[in-house]
Write a structure and sequence with these properties.
MetI-like fold; mainly alpha; 12 helices; 80% helix
Length: 297
């Protein structure tokens, strides 16, 4: 092979490498690595969780029937499903009211958390003073916040519940977002500075993409936690047409099947919010290595 042939071959290899590198950076997996069995792989991955869920329900139903457990002690899944269907209008009305409180608090807490995270990047003294306080405040249990919020606002107003959810969401989002914005490889920053990049360009091209995985990790937690926080806040009083009061009232009357139906609605709402975060994560950051790996499997 002549020197010219060798150089031509090396150029072809380099072109292929650059094409695959750019495609991977943009979130595209090279065509040769895609397989039509990606859906089957995902189903196999979810299989053990589905099987475990069915097994738990089967054992729950079987053991309560075998030992003739009274419904006021532990209701059977079949009875819970029956009451869920029969009381669907009432329980879903309460569920949507709770979802409204949780949703407003989730959005408000997320906006405030991300905003404060950007502030901590801009001013180091703010970061050094705020982060220890944020970590300490994040350890405060939800049940301690609810009575205080109800005392600050009207007991029948949803504002107190929204405030509790906002506080619960704010700290995890702020801490994780700030961590993602701060813990950037110094070599990446030096490379951007060598190209005379402005601070704004460094922020949006380096820090924000680096912080997105941290942000979505927090969102996966607080999406479900927002429903929990809203329900706990509702236990301390307020409108009767919310999940917290619905569950509390039914449990106090020993109508546990109806209380479990309310818990089922809360679970559905929590899983739905979690799924929305997963979809948003996939749409916003398809370039992440975890998605490229799953697509290539």
């Amino acid at each position: 092979m002549t020197v010219g042939d060798q150089e031509h071959k090396a150029s072809e290899i380099d072109d292929v490498y650059q094409t695959e590198f750019v495609s991977a950076f943009e979130g595209d997996v090279p065509a040769g690595t895609r397989t039509p069995s990606a859906l089957r792989h995902r189903l196999r991955t979810a299989g053990p969780a589905i099987a475990a869920f069915i097994l738990v329900l089967a054992l729950w139903e079987g053991l309560t029937r075998l030992f003739d457990v009274k419904t006021f002690v532990l209701a059977r899944p079949s009875l819970i499903l029956e009451r869920f269907i029969l009381t669907s209008d009432v329980v879903w009305s309460a569920g949507f009211n709770t979802l409204f409180e949780a949703g407003i608090g989730l959005v408000a807490g997320t906006i405030l958390g991300v905003g404060v995270a950007f502030v901590t990047i801009r001013w180091a003294p703010v970061r050094e003073g705020l982060m220890p306080f944020a970590v300490a405040a994040n350890s405060v249990p939800i049940i301690a916040l609810a009575p205080i919020a109800n005392g600050m606002f009207s007991l029948t107003s949803p504002v107190s519940k929204i405030a509790v959810v906002t506080v619960v969401v704010f700290f995890p989002v702020m801490i994780n977002s700030a961590r993602g914005l701060i813990e950037v490889d110094e070599d990446e920053l030096e490379l951007m500075r060598s190209y005379a990049a402005k601070p704004r360009e460094i922020m949006w091209r380096v820090r924000v993409p680096h912080a997105l995985p941290y942000f979505f990790s927090a969102m996966k937690v607080v999406a479900v936690l927002s429903i929990i926080a809203a329900i706990i806040a509702e236990y301390f009083g307020g409108s009767q047409d919310v999940l917290g009061q619905y569950i509390l009232t039914k449990a106090s009357l020993f109508v546990y099947a109806d209380a479990w139906a309310g818990i089922l609605v809360a679970s559905i709402l929590g899983v739905t919010l979690y799924a929305i975060v997963l979809v948003a994560e996939r749409l916003i950051m398809p370039w992440h290595v975890s998605f490229r790996a799953s697509d290539a499997t």
